[in-house]
Every structure is written in structure tokens, then in C-alpha cells.
Design brief:
Length: 302
């Protein structure tokens, strides 16, 4: 269970309590506040707090750029202009704080996004729960033959059953030994900060993660992408749904210009112009490497 009965009661109590405020609120995000969204088998993500909305982005932009934005007739148009021209500072006026429960190996990917404030559950002071991420059968895949950091086809039959058995058995055995090492019943017991090193990377941890909208969108661009690892992508997709309700204008611009758009090199733009003019362009006469050409074809051919 992602949240204990006590934690669920706490969420209900928090959502039931209302306080008058003069601060700006986003109705879409108010619906998400405190409510956990389940991710994977034991994980979740929930909004603990937030600041700002679409109006905060345009407010900051108009202070920064003054007369330069007067030709933009509305807030949505201004936000799209900012996104289109990579003016990132106004998006930093919005912030969000998330409570996330996730496997340790996902956390180690996630923490590479260093533009955030993080406070993680400490296994030096507390004992970790016996909760491990065990993939669903359709998420068990072989190594990709074309991508060194990707997956290939899903494992089938006896091989899939064998892998799942190893994952479960190894996790349980490691946790049994973890408990025995820190036991205080008739033995001195190993320090928790040392006993934790015996635990596998699929055990769950928790943290509070606070970041601004600009850096959150960068996180989503990389981690909600179809090429991202499945286990972190599902967290990014859950967060993306919250962001869409929080700042709808900014999220729509993000979808159009970042997730759905593409950046072309000077060589690629030259190739597009030559194609429009009717010239036959190939990898050999494009001025691009094979990898660049393959990616270029993926953009123009869909």
C-alpha cells in the first residue's frame, strides 16, 4: 500500500481544513493538493505545496521586459512567446513541493536533476520498510540490441518467471539479513547506517522535492519522454498531469514547443530548404553523420 491508513487519514484531514488566504491560488492545483497518485507497485507522488500560477509568469515577464511585451495581446500569447524564445526566468516564479515515494534506483536517476531542494528519508536514523519494487511481467524486458541504455522485447514464459523469482527472493533475503543485523534482542546490533548497505536498489525510499517550474519542465522534457526509463517515466507522467492543471497555458506551450517540437541544426535546416526546393537530399550529401541523419529523418518523417 503506498500510504498507510494513518497517512490517508492525515491527507483527508488536511484536505478538509480550509484557511482564508490573500495569496494567489490555482483551482486546478487545489484539486491535487495533498492527494497521492499511486505510481508503480508501492510508490506515489503528491503535491504538498505550490506557489504561483500562469498569471505569476506573465506578471514577472511584464516587469522584466516592460514595453517589449505590449504587442502580445493576452496572457496565453505572452506565455507562448516566452516559451518559444527560451525566456526561462518568468517560469521560475512558480514553485512546487512534492512528496515522492520511489525505488532507490529511480531516486538515483532523479537526483541528477540538481536544480531542486531535496530532503530524503534517512536510513541512518530510521528503519526502512520491507517494500520493494517488483516489475509487472510486461515491464520485464531484455537488453536492447540497438540502445546500450534501453530495453528490448519483454521476457516470456519460464525466463520471466525465473527473473521475477530472483527479484522477490533476493529482496526478501536481503531484508531478512538487514533486520537480523540491526536486531537488539540479545545482541549489540549493527549500526543502521551500516546495515542499510546490504539492501538492494529496488527498496523504496521517500523524499520531499521542491523545484521551480522552469526546472520542472526540463525534468519532464527528459523524463516524460518515450525514450526515458519506464520506472521514472511513470512518475514524470503523473507529475505532468498535475502541472497541466496547475498552469494550463504554460503546459500547453511546453507541449507544443518542447515535447512536440524539435530543434534542428544549421545543417538540418539547410537540408529542409533544399528538399523544399525539390533537391534530392541523402545522408551522403547532407553534411550530417549517420546518427544525425537518422534523427533528422525521425523528425521530418514522424
Amino acid at each position: 500500500m503506498p500510504l498507510s491508513p494513518e497517512q490517508l487519514r492525515e491527507v483527508d484531514d488536511l484536505r478538509a481544513e480550509t484557511t482564508p488566504t490573500l495569496r494567489a491560488t490555482a483551482p486546478g492545483m487545489e484539486q491535487h493538493l495533498y492527494t497521492p497518485v499511486q505510481v508503480l507497485d508501492h510508490g506515489f507522488v503528491r503535491v504538498v505545496d505550490y506557489m504561483g500560477d500562469d498569471a505569476a509568469i506573465t506578471q514577472a515577464a511584464r516587469v522584466s521586459y516592460g514595453r517589449g511585451t505590449k504587442s502580445v495581446s493576452n496572457d496565453e500569447g505572452l506565455i507562448r512567446y516566452l516559451m518559444r524564445h527560451w525566456h526561462s526566468t518568468p517560469f521560475e516564479m512558480c514553485e512546487i513541493k512534492l512528496h515522492v515515494k520511489l525505488p532507490v534506483f529511480v531516486a538515483r536517476q532523479w537526483i541528477r536533476h540538481r536544480t531542486a531542494n531535496v530532503n530524503e528519508y534517512s536510513a541512518r536514523y530510521s528503519i526502512l520498510d520491507r517494500e520493494f519494487y517488483i516489475p509487472a511481467p510486461d515491464a520485464l524486458a531484455a537488453q536492447s540490441v540497438v540502445n546500450n541504455q534501453g530495453r528490448g522485447e519483454a521476457l516470456q514464459g519460464e525466463e520471466a518467471e525465473r527473473v521475477l523469482r530472483y527479484l522477490r527472493d533476493d529482496a526478501m533475503r536481503a531484508y531478512d539479513h538487514y533486520e537480523e543485523m540491526i536486531s537488539t534482542e540479545g545482541q549489540q546490533g549493527l549500526a543502521r547506517e551500516l546495515a542499510r548497505m546490504n539492501l538492494p536498489a529496488n527498496i523504496y525510499t521517500q523524499w520531499y522535492w521542491k523545484t521551480d517550474l522552469h526546472n520542472l519542465l526540463h525534468f519532464l522534457r527528459l523524463r516524460a519522454d518515450a525514450h526515458a526509463q519506464y520506472e521514472i517515466r511513470v512518475y514524470a507522467e503523473a507529475i505532468a498531469g498535475m502541472v497541466k492543471d496547475w498552469v494550463p497555458f504554460a503546459y500547453k506551450a511546453f507541449e507544443d514547443y518542447r515535447m512536440g517540437g524539435a530543434t534542428l541544426s544549421a545543417a538540418a535546416i539547410d537540408c529542409v530548404k533544399r528538399m523544399i526546393a525539390g533537391e534530392e537530399v541523402t545522408q551522403e550529401n547532407s553534411g550530417m553523420s549517420k546518427g544525425e541523419w537518422r534523427e533528422f529523418q525521425g523528425v521530418i518523417e514522424g
